[in-house]
User: Which sequence fits this backbone?
């Protein structure tokens, strides 16, 4: 369960990062590592899934003579962030109510 | 770079070519960025999570198992279309057979032309025809034979290529799914 939750959180984090600034794989990985222990192989399926879900768009830029794949958020991606955050607020409120009714 | 690249490639076995290339491009970009940021290839090799690539492969393969219901749908469509497919298939095979017959006839014609030229020369010599007439006739024969021979040769080559691509088509249809897995 924790793994699934984490995947969801990482997905939203990637979307949020790309919403702030269009970014590329390595940069995303560096930023993600400030919060999670994540490797290249964990990030790839996430980026791919978001791209296939049309929540991220990609384009290529030549940097130092090499190709760099940039990710850009779509409206669908923005909706994903909003839905996720709203769902979490609801869960937090529910947990708060449960805690209030059942003090430890 | 090649060492790391080779190891990653090995881990990507079982994926189709497009998937493999997409993933390799991603890792290549990451490795190059790491090199640009001062890491050596040995450091990258040591710290690289090669086993994690298996997770990437598994994640990508997951949707394939989800689409199992499509297999049944595909089977129903094939069964419903089988009378048409059967006729089309037989026509296809017939066309290949006709092509081979044309190739065979062309070869026989080429050999016949060669035998005819020799026979004609012998006949002319036996008939004691004038040398100038023999040279003229043989010259004309060679010209026409070369022309017909070239046409037949091109016909054989063209039909052979057509047959090869048609047979490759059958191979692709019959082994299509297996091919994609590789």
Assistant:
């Amino acid at each position: 369960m924790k793994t699934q939750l984490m995947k969801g959180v990482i997905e939203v984090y990637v979307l949020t990062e790309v919403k702030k600034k269009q970014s590329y794989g390595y940069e995303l990985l560096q930023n993600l590592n400030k919060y999670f222990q994540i490797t290249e192989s964990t990030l790839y399926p996430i980026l791919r899934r978001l791209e296939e879900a049309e929540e991220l768009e990609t384009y290529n830029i030549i940097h130092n003579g090499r190709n760099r794949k940039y990710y850009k958020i779509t409206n669908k991606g923005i909706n994903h962030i909003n839905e996720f955050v709203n769902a979490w607020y609801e869960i937090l409120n529910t947990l708060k109510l449960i805690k209030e009714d059942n003090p430890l | 770079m090649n060492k790391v690249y080779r190891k990653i490639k090995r881990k990507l076995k079982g994926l189709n070519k497009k998937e493999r290339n997409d993933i390799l491009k991603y890792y290549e970009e990451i490795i190059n960025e790491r090199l640009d940021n001062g890491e050596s290839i040995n450091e990258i090799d040591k710290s690289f999570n090669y086993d994690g690539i298996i997770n990437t492969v598994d994640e990508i393969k997951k949707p394939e198992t989800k689409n199992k219901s499509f297999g049944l749908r595909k089977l129903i469509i094939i069964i419903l279309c089988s009378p048409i497919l059967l006729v089309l298939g037989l026509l296809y095979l017939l066309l290949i057979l006709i092509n081979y017959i044309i190739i065979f006839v062309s070869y026989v014609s080429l050999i016949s032309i060669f035998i005819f030229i020799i026979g004609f020369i012998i006949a002319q010599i036996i008939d004691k025809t004038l040398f100038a007439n023999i040279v003229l006739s043989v010259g004309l024969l060679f010209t026409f034979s070369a022309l017909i021979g070239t046409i037949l040769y091109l016909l054989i080559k063209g039909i052979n290529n057509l047959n090869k691509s048609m047979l490759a088509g059958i191979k692709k249809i019959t082994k299509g799914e297996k091919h994609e897995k590789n």
Remarks:
- Chain B touches chain A at residues 22-23, 25-27, 29-30, 32-34, 36, 48-49, 52-53, 55-56, 59-60 (CB under 8 Å).
- Helices of chain B lie at 2-11, 17-36, 41-47, 50-66, 68-126, 131-181.
- The CA atoms of residues 71 and 77 of chain B lie 10 Å apart.
